[in-house]
Write a structure and sequence with these properties.
Layout (H helix, E strand, L loop, with lengths): L1 E7 L7 E7 L7 E10 L2 H4 L12 E2 L3 E9 L12 E4 L8 H4 L9 H7 L9 E2 L19 E5 L3 E4 L14 H12 L7 E5 L3 H13 L2 E6 L2 H9 L3 E4 L5 H8 L4 E6 L4 H10 E9 L19 E4 L7 H13 L9 E5 L3 H9 L5 E5 L6
The structure holds zinc ion (2 copies).
Protein name: Alcohol dehydrogenase
GO molecular function: oxidoreductase activity; zinc ion binding
Family: Belongs to the zinc-containing alcohol dehydrogenase family.
C-alpha cells in the first residue's frame, strides 16, 4: 500500500514528507496499524548525532498508537483487527533478559530498535523510486500513516481513551514513570529528586506524586519548573552552587532516590550529593562524555545504575498509566502539543528549542 511518511534522508537536512510503499501483508506474528498519533522522542532526534550508525534513509517514530487494521495468519488472538493499541519497543522474546521479564535489556535491543531491525526477506518500506528504506525503527517506523509491527510490541487499550495521544506511553512517559514505579518502587513518604524536567522527567514527577512521594524537580528552564510544580514537585533551578544542600534541607538529610535525565556530569554529581546514605541514583540518558565522579559522592551505600525504558513490561505499565490518567492522577496530556504529520520539522524545532515538551504527530489529519 502507498502512504505518507516523514522520511529522514540525511543527518543534517529536514524530514521530507513522501509517498512510500509499505508491504502490507502482515507476516506471522505481525499486525498492520493505522497510526492515529506518534510522539517525537529525544531518541528520534538523536539519530542526527549518531555519527552514521543509524541507517538512512529512514522512517523514524517509535511512540505510535492507533487501530489494528490487519493481522498475520497465525496471530495468537491476543490482538485483533479493530483493537486500539499503543506500540512500544521491540525485543526478541527468547534471550535471558526477555525470559526474565526484562525486555528493555534484551540481548538484541540495539539491533532490533536502533541499528537494523529484524531480518527481512524483502524491504518493508520503499520510496517512490523503489529504493529500500532502513529497516523499521524500534520495530515501528510510526512517523507514517500506517506501520507494520510485531504484535508482541503492541499493548491493547480501552477504545474510549484518546488513542491519538497515547503513543508516548510506549517510550518517553513509560521511561519516567517506570523508573519511579518499577525501578525505585516509590511509595508514600519516599523522597525523590528528578534532574531534568522534560518529557521523561515530568512523567517521573507525575508518577511520584501519584505514588505519594515528596519530590524535588531540578531544571534550568523556568517554564519547565512551573510545570513540575503544577504536577506536585518542589521546583529548584539547576545552576546554583548550593543545589545539593538545598535538596538535603528540603528532605531532612537527603533523598532516597534520584533520577537523572540530563546526562550532565555536574548535575549527576549534584544528584549523588543530594542522596542520603544507601540512596540510589538512576540514569536514563545516554552519556556522551566521561563521567568523573567527585570524591565522597559514591560512598556510604550509595549506588548508581542505568535504567532503560523504565524497567517496564509495557503490557503491565501502560494500562496502569492509562488508569491513573482516567483517575486524574497522571495528566500526561498536558505535556502534549499535536501537529499534522506535514509539520514534522516544526515539531522538531519546537522540541529542540524547549517550546513544547512532547510533540505528537497526527498522520491521519491534514497530512495530504
Ligand atoms: Zn531478548
Ligand atoms: Zn523513545
Amino acid at each position: 500500500m502507498r502512504l505518507q511518511a516523514a522520511v529522514l534522508r540525511s543527518y543534517e537536512d529536514p524530514f521530507t514528507i513522501e509517498e512510500v510503499t509499505l508491504r502490507t501483508e502482515p507476516a506471522a506474528g505481525e499486525i498492520l496499524v493505522e497510526i492515529a498519533g506518534c510522539g517525537m522522542c529525544r531518541t528520534d532526534l538523536a539519530v542526527r548525532r549518531s555519527a552514521g550508525r543509524s541507517p538512512l534513509p529512514a522512517v523514524l517514530g517509535h511512540e505510535g498508537a492507533g487501530v489494528v487494521v490487519a493481522s498475520g495468519d497465525d496471530s495468537d488472538g491476543a490482538i485483533g483487527v479493530g483493537d486500539h493499541v499503543v506500540l512500544s519497543f521491540d525485543s526478541c522474546g527468547h534471550c535471558r533478559a526477555c525470559l526474565g521479564a526484562a525486555p528493555a535489556y534484551c540481548d538484541s535491543f540495539a539491533s532490533l530498535n536502533l541499528f537494523g531491525g529484524r531480518k527481512e526477506d524483502a524491504p518493508r518500506l520503499t520510496d517512490a523510486t523503489g529504493e529500500a528504506l532502513a529497516p523499521r525503527w524500534f520495530g515501528q517506523s510510526s512517523f507514517a500513516e500506517y506501520a507494520l509491527v510485531p504484535a508482541r510490541n503492541a499493548v491493547r487499550v480501552d477504545p474510549a481513551l484518546p488513542i491519538e495521544l497515547l503513543g508516548p506511553l510506549g517510550c518517553g512517559f513509560l521511561t519516567g514513570a517506570g523508573a519511579v514505579l518499577n525501578t525505585f518502587g516509590i511509595g508514600p513518604g519516599d523522597t525523590l529528586a528528578i534532574f531534568g524536567a522534560g518529557a521523561v522527567g515530568l512523567a517521573a514527577v507525575m508518577a511520584a506524586t501519584a505514588a505519594g512521594a515528596l519530590t524535588v524537580a531540578v531544571d534550568r528552564h523556568p517554564q519547565r519548573l512551573t510545570l513540575a510544580e503544577r504536577f506536585g514537585a518542589i521546583p529548584l533551578p539547576a545552576a546554583t552552587a548550593t543545589l545539593p544542600e538545598q535538596i538535603r534541607r528540603l528532605t531532612e538529610g537527603g533523598v532516597q532516590y534520584a533520577l537523572d535525565t540530563t546526562a550532565s556530569p555536574p548535575l549527576i554529581n549534584d544528584a549523588l550529593r543530594a542522596l542520603r546514605p544507601t540512596g540510589s541514583l538512576g540514569l536514563v540518558a545516554r552519556l556522551h562524555t566521561a563521567l568523573p565522579l567527585e570524591p565522597g559522592t559514591v560512598d556510604r551505600g550509595r549506588s548508581i545504575r542505568h535504567i532503560c525504558e523504565g524497567d517496564a513490561l509495557p503490557g503491565l505499565l501502560i494500562p496502569r498509566l492509562t488508569g491513573l490518567w482516567q483517575a486524574g492522577r497522571f495528566p500526561f496530556d498536558q505535556l502534549i502539543r499535536t501537529y499534522p504529520l506535514a509539520d514534522v520539522n516544526e515539531a522538531e524545532r519546537d522540541c529542540e528549542a524547549g517550546r513544547v515538551v512532547k510533540p505528537v504527530l497526527l498522520p491521519q489529519r491534514g497530512s495530504r
